[in-house]
């Protein structure tokens, strides 16, 4: 019985070590925005050093809201817990993304053309992303979920090809190769319509 318990303990320890997750990588919002972030400030907070990156864009409030929704979902998929915070002054939206390695903040500010923004037109907005040094973050890297201008398609993994037939347009259903029932022979992903993103 002792040997069995010892063997079971070793097996459980091996399984735990094999499946231990790496620290999640915070995606760069600049990938969605199509601009590269600039280091705005390095600061020392109670929890450690932070770097704040600034992204200046011209877009409408609706477009910015869509970016925040996509970014929040990508961060959640990467392993972060999002939280919406109270705003003040010219800040439009303030989000926090927490993981075991710390908490990053994303804030959206009005930088110019506020009258145009109020009328539904494009204006100058600043996205500010504050990232603790302890968190895995690579400027310009959207991680596995973000690609320039959108979210990577989960069906095709960003290839744009039909995941069922591999992009050939046909598959073997037992009687030889026939037209793929998913893409109807086009070879294109039916979710993202061949874009690799949405």
Describe the structure in your own words.
By secondary structure, this protein is α+β, with helices and mostly antiparallel strands. It folds into two domains: 25-147, no CATH class; 153-198, no CATH class. Helices cover 22% and strands 34% of the residues. It has helices at 2-18, 30-33, 61-78, 114-118, and strands at residues 25-26, 38-45, 48-59, 81-84, 91-99, 102-112, 123-132, 136-137, 146-147, 150-151, 170-172, 177-179. Strands 2-3-7-6-5-4 form a six-stranded antiparallel β-sheet. It is elongated, with a radius of gyration of 22 Å. The model is unreliable at 4-20 (pLDDT under 50).
Number of domains: 2
Major sheet: 6 strands, antiparallel
Write the element-wise H/E pattern from the N-terminal end onward.
Answer: HEHEEHEEEHEEEEEE
| End-to-end C-alpha gap | 56 Å
Task: Please name the defining characteristics of this protein.
198 residues, two-stranded parallel sheet, signal, single chain, 2 domains, six-stranded antiparallel sheet, alpha+beta, 4 helices
Please sum up the structure shown.
The chain is α+β, with helices and mostly antiparallel strands and 198 residues long. It has four helices and twelve strands, in the order αβαββαβββαββββββ.
What's the topology here?
Layout: H1 2-18, E1 25-26, H2 30-33, E2 38-45, E3 48-59, H3 61-78, E4 81-84, E5 91-99, E6 102-112, H4 114-118, E7 123-132, E8 136-137, E9 146-147, E10 150-151, E11 170-172, E12 177-179
Parallel strand pairs: 1-8
Antiparallel strand pairs: 2-3, 3-7, 4-5, 5-6, 6-7, 9-10, 11-12
């Amino acid at each position: 019985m002792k040997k069995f318990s010892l063997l079971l303990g070793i097996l459980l320890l091996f399984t735990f070590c094999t499946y231990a997750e790496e620290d999640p990588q915070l995606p760069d919002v600049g990938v969605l925005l199509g601009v590269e972030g600039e280091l705005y400030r390095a600061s020392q907070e109670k929890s450690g050093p932070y770097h704040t990156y600034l992204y200046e864009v011209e877009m409408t409030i609706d477009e910015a809201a869509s970016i925040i929704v996509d970014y929040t979902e990508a961060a959640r998929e990467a392993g972060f817990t999002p939280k919406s915070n109270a705003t003040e002054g010219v800040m439009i939206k303030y989000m926090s993304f927490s993981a075991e390695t710390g908490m990053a903040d994303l804030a959206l500010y009005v930088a110019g053309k506020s009258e145009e923004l109020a009328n539904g037109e494009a204006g100058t907005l600043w996205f500010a992303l504050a990232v603790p040094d302890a968190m895995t973050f690579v400027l310009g890297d959207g991680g596995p979920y973000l690609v320039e201008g959108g979210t990577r398609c989960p069906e095709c993994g960003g290839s744009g090809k039909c995941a069922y037939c591999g992009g050939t347009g046909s598959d073997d259903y037992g009687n030889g190769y026939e037209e793929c029932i998913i893409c109807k022979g086009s070879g294109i992903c039916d979710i993202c319509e061949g874009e690799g993103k949405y």
